[in-house]
Amino acid sequence: MGLVAAELERQGIATVAIQLLRLVAEKVRPPRALYVPFPHGYPLKAPNDPEQQRAVIEAALLLLEDCTLKPPVLLGYNPK
Amino acid sequence: MGDLSEFSLKYRVFLKTYQWRRIDPVPWTPLKKPLKDSRLVLVSSAGIVTSDQKPFDKSIRGGDSSIREIPADVDVTTLIETHRSKAFDHTGIRLDPNLAFPLDRLRELSFAGRIGSLNHRHISLMGSLTAPGRLIKKIIPLVGYQLVKDGVDIALLVPV
Fold first, then answer.
1. Residues 6+ apart with CB under 8 A from B59
2. Among the four residues A2, A38, A74, B78, which has the most C-beta atoms within 10 Å?
3. Is the distance from CB of B93 to CB of B160 less than 8 angstroms?
4. Domain span holding position A59
5. Using CB atoms, which residue from A40, A54, A58 is nearest to B160?
């Protein structure tokens, strides 16, 4: 997904990618990534749990809004 | 979780030794306008299809690099996950496709005014491609061109 994000950024679309493996994010270097500590198959934590899903998406959206960040951005998800 | 420990030895070895493509230089598009005025596209690599689309082809060596456009008005409960990987648990996403294709959550955010609007189409692909060249060099550049024409400002990418 990092490679997809990079191509969209090249075309002028700001991206944020949720990332399940820190190792892969560090090697590929997507422009903006939120690392989440969940197992594969569960990128937004839990099925049928809108609140948890929304919280992960909100954390990702905050990366888009933070104009102090410089690429490549890889930040961990810290639920409140 | 979220590290290699969740995988079998076979997948751990693969993930450690695979020649990941390093993005260099890293392209960067800053947010051009507030989120409340931005149009968002969802991109998911969970191999999601609608009930009238062909499943992703699990037999293609290197992985199926095709994409599916998912219409914005789709009923998320009708989406079907067709990802070929045996490395992860598919149970959750089959119970609730929003887990990796969170269109209902994005609709709520748009309704609440947190984001401006959702694009009329979203993008589904199947991750775990060991040969991503065709996807990256041919398909995604065209997708990006179309999304820019759609007026898309931001993209949320969700893996599985």
1. none
2. A2
3. yes
4. 2-76
5. A40
Is residue B16 situated within a structural domain? no
Does B39 fall in a domain?
yes
Test B154 with A42 for CB contact under 8 angstroms: no
Of A18, A19, A48, the CB nearest to B96: A48
pLDDT (tens digit, 9 = 90+) per residue, A3-34? Answer: 999 999 999 999 999 999 998 899 999 999 99
Look at chain B and report how many structural domains it folds into. 1
**Residue recorded with tokens 């959550």:** B105
Sequential DSSP letters for A22-43: HHHHHHH--SEEEE----TT-T
The SS3 assignment for A14 reads strand
Residue B23 lies in a domain: no
- Give residue-wise pLDDT tens across range B119-148: 999 999 998 788 888 899 999 999 999 999
Q: Which tens digit of pLDDT belongs to each residue from B6-46?
A: 877 877 777 778 888 899 999 999 999 999 999 999 999 99
* B18 within some domain: no
Domain that holds residue B120: 29-158
